[in-house]
Write a structure and sequence with these properties.
Blueprint (H helix, E strand, L loop, with lengths): L1 H4 E3 L5 E3 L5 H12 L9 E5 L6 H10 L5 E7 L6 H18 L3 H11 L18 H19 L2 E7 L1 H11 L4 H21 L3 E7 L3 H10 L10 E4 L6 H15 L4 H14 L4 H10 L11 H13 L7 H4 L1 H5 L4 H13 L6 H12 L5 H13 L3 E4 L4 E4 L2 H10 L8
Parallel strand pairs: 3-6, 3-7, 4-5, 5-6
Antiparallel strand pairs: 1-2, 8-9
Helix pairs in contact: 4-5, 4-6, 5-6, 6-8, 7-8, 10-11, 10-12, 11-13, 16-17, 16-19, 17-18
Length: about 425
């Protein structure tokens, strides 16, 4: 995908480009900038389906920031401690300040404010335990002063932050309240930094919805609202025209097709995988390398797609396997039945229709209030989309819907 996702700047360094995401990226920058421009912008929380393209969008922003902005990005999925997270943020800040040519004065000031630690070791020495809250607030406090002097803003992007919080909670094992307390303190500290530092903005992203983490914290006594100053946003799939254009680009690199056939096949590819770039590329790359141009037809593409879904080549089973962890084992049967109904129903349905169908098919009484709670979660986790008045629901991803029907032996209606 190099041709579609990367280009070179004037220095010869490749920029990572999120093809077809220009409108969404502009919306992200506009949110960070604020509107009108003299107002303060807002930090952002991005959540969407796995492989929807979140990381590529963030890489694009890192490589091509707007004037007046700088970007510092890290994937935090592998971290399981608030203190380790703070230390990694400090290391990243050292690198950032070094590139920004403000290294010497900033590190001395931060060292003194934090009680003194080894600057050149690039880690917090064992002899000096520095709590997460203190390190983060002092680090960002001094960084904010430097940014203010140059009238610049820094966007800190932390990819998979919900996974970090879940790791923190899980690390404490049976001592659940200790894990909850550590995760809650980290969230509260990051919110405090956003309130105190007007030149620091944050973007949190994750495939795990932050609402699941917050629900776990609240069940254990947490009452904070650590994201109420952040704008929730979701990229979603590409618009059909952009998905078709991306598919045409990939197809034209594989074989020379007539203009009419290229247009038709590109539309088939993009529609077949729900206009998601990762799967557009994956489906085109599945075409046999020795296939003749005349053999590349919409019918051939549909057959290859069906084979990939049947063999679970894209690990779509993940969307079913995570259900017990997200909704609890006690709700697995009910969630599966709800998704069965949404998957094989052509038109959007109401909550009452969902309840009536489950009671009729499963022959067991289901409380409407439970279905309502689960539908809210399924919408937040991007399994379902909510629309209209009266409120109705439908399956969000056409690709996952088709796989779900195949895997559950259901008849998937045509679009």
């Amino acid at each position: 995908m190099k041709d579609a996702s990367a280009r070179q700047n004037s220095s010869g360094k490749e920029k990572r480009i999120a093809y077809g995401r220009e409108a969404f990226i502009n919306e992200l920058w506009s949110t960070l900038e604020g509107y009108p421009p003299e107002t303060n912008g807002r930090s952002i929380y991005i959540n969407d389906l796995r492989r929807i393209g979140k990381t590529r969008i963030l890489e694009h922003m890192e490589d091509d920031p707007r004037p007046g902005f700088r970007v510092m990005k890290r994937d935090v999925e592998g971290i399981n401690s608030a203190d380790v997270f703070a230390q990694e943020v400090y290391r990243d800040t050292l690198v950032f300040m070094n590139k920004w040519r403000r290294f010497g004065g900033w590190t001395v000031k931060t060292r003194d404010a934090c009680g003194g630690f080894g600057i050149w070791q690039l880690k917090i020495p064992e002899y000096r335990y520095l709590p997460c809250e203190r390190l983060l607030r002092k680090t960002f406090g001094h960084l904010n002063e430097c940014l203010a002097k140059k009238d610049e803003r820094l966007v800190c992007i932390w990819d998979e932050l919900p996974a970090l919080l879940e790791n923190i909670i899980d690390r404490h094992g049976d001592c659940l309240k200790e894990g909850v307390l550590e995760a809650a303190r980290l969230l509260d500290t990051l919110r405090a930094v956003r309130q105190e530092c007007s030149h620091i903005y944050m973007i949190f992203t994750g495939s795990i919805g932050m609402h699941h983490i917050l629900n776990k914290l609240r069940r254990n006594g947490y009452k904070g609202r650590p994201l109420n100053d952040m704008e929730p946003m979701a990229p979603g799939p590409l618009v059909p025209e952009e998905g078709k254009a991306l598919a045409a680009r990939f197809l034209s690199k594989r074989r020379k097709l007539s203009e009419d056939m290229l247009d038709t096949c590109a539309e088939t590819v993009s529609e077949g995988v729900g206009h998601i770039p990762y799967y557009i590329e994956g489906l085109v790359n599945t075409l046999p390398s020795d296939i003749s141009p005349s053999s590349i037809t919409p019918e051939k593409i549909q057959k290859i797609l069906a084979d990939r879904l049947a063999n679970s080549d894209w690990d779509l089973r993940y969307f079913e396997e995570r259900i017990p962890n997200l909704y609890g084992r006690e709700n697995v049967f009910l969630v599966n039945k709800i998704l069965d109904y949404l998957a094989e129903t052509r038109n959007p349905v109401t909550e009452k229709e969902i309840v009536d169908w489950i009671n009729r098919v499963a022959k067991k009484g289901v409380e409407a209030s439970i279905v309502h709670e689960l539908m809210d979660l399924l919408v937040n986790d991007h399994y379902a989309v909510k629309m209209g008045d009266p409120v109705t629901y439908s399956f969000r991803s056409s690709l996952i819907r088709r796989w779900w029907c195949m895997n559950h032996g259901l008849k998937c209606p045509l679009p």
